[in-house]
Amino acid sequence: MIVPVIMSGGSGTRLWPMSRELYPKQFHHLLGNETMLQQTVQRLDGLCEPEQLIVIGNREHRFMIIDQLAETGWQNANVMLEPVGRNTAPAVAMAAFAALEVSPGATLLVLAADHVIRDAEGFRTTVKTMLPLAEDGRLITFGIPASRPDTGFGYIHCGEKISACAFHVDAFIEKPNKDKAAEYVAAGDYYWNSGMFLFQAKTYLAELEKLQPEIFKCCQAAWVNREQHFHGFQTFDEVAFGRCPALSIDYAVIEKTSKAAMAPLDVGWNDIGSWSSLYQELEKDEYGNATKGDVLVQDTHDCLLYAHDRLLVTSGLKDVVIVETSDAVLVADRSQSHEIGKLVKVLQNNGRSEASLHRCAFRPWGSYTVLEKSSGHQVKRLTLKPGAVLSLQRHKYRAEHWVVVKGQASIVHGEDKMLLNENESTYIPAGMIHQLANDTENVLEVIEVQTGSYLEEDDIERLDDPYHRSGTSG
């Protein structure tokens, strides 16, 4: 039985300002009508049933994961949440423990949520071909034929053939400089390390226990003491998982085990890890420009231009990335776009909210967008999904004025209940118990005007919450 494991906990900081900690790249529509996570799920069709899929993510993203799985018809997948990030080796261990509870012979197919694979059928065929080797106790890593001297990937040097379609691994090589990368491409027996793996759950755990006993011990405890939540997802025990060493699966196991094998995978793969790599995948005009949104170009060549909220106009540019969002604009040399993650760390160190938050924030009931904020007041647009309801709550420091601009709102207003239609409004003073709900089959939009001395999200006292959240996040 194949149990796919999609790793969806990353923050994708090198694609800032679009990708941010609380709304990272795997949940965006970068290529086509589906998000990166949804595209990864869809290419599993024919390899497994939805209930066999495991998605491992950040608990701050839990409702986005659930919603996006439901949109693709994979709502029966198992969603497992990391209380803290500990890299991929511990995360895969947790998936292995879960898979063994279903089948002692489960084979894990470990995937990233943000990879492009153009030939989905070729991908599925290669996985099925490698299945007997995995069942025979090999830990298989998929290698991508190195078609150019790319310094953004690690490399695998393949050795003798194990079978018609797999090789021994001679060496794993960290990201090289350009000259070394050119040597590897010319040699012809080096492959990019894709970060995708196939192995039996029991084999991985046995190697992990032998090579990284502390990780194994912590993960075992975190699994035994896991929590099952109302919406079907599971959270690992935070204390045990938090003690776990943070190591990648490559460094912890694959580079050290004697059971590693490499299977070539030539399926139009790309890791969308930077604006430059995204540029490679986008359609371009006759001058080599990839554009999205409202963009006007003049004497502009080989640029990536992304406009989200307003008109973007360029003149006399070459090899530049410009990304415009509602609260930040990035301008960078395309060849240096892989360095953007370092700038995000500077923003984080400076306490800038733009490092992690968009003006649009997603919640289990829908989303809100900050339209304006200054001292003493804030204006938001709340968008509620059909059937959605906010928590029963009150605020200590702020008052709120709600205006319905689309749909019909059901409201708890102190001891009263009311219905508001379009162009109708109500006022909620500080301290009043209130709740907003959408009992219709249509989307509800409400403009919320907040006034008061303190307007942050932690001024929420939840008295009853249908989503069983703690605190104010999520």
> Largest sheet at a glance?
6 strands, antiparallel
Q: What is the end-to-end distance?
A: 34 Å
CATH level 3 topology of the largest domain: Spore Coat Polysaccharide Biosynthesis Protein SpsA, Chain A
Task: Determine the oligomeric state from the structure.
Answer: single chain
Instruction: Name the average pLDDT.
Output: 93
Q: Taking strands numbered 1, 2, ... along the chain, how are they ordered across the largest sheet?
A: 20-21-22-29-24-27
Please work out how many helical segments DSSP would assign.
11
Query: CATH superfamily membership of the largest domain, which one?
Result: Spore Coat Polysaccharide Biosynthesis Protein SpsA, Chain A
Poorly predicted runs of 5 or more residues: none
Share of residues in helices: 10-25%
Number of strands: 30
CATH architecture of the largest domain: Alpha-Beta Complex
**How large is the radius of gyration?**
24 Å
Number of domains: 3
The CATH top-level class label of the largest domain = Alpha Beta
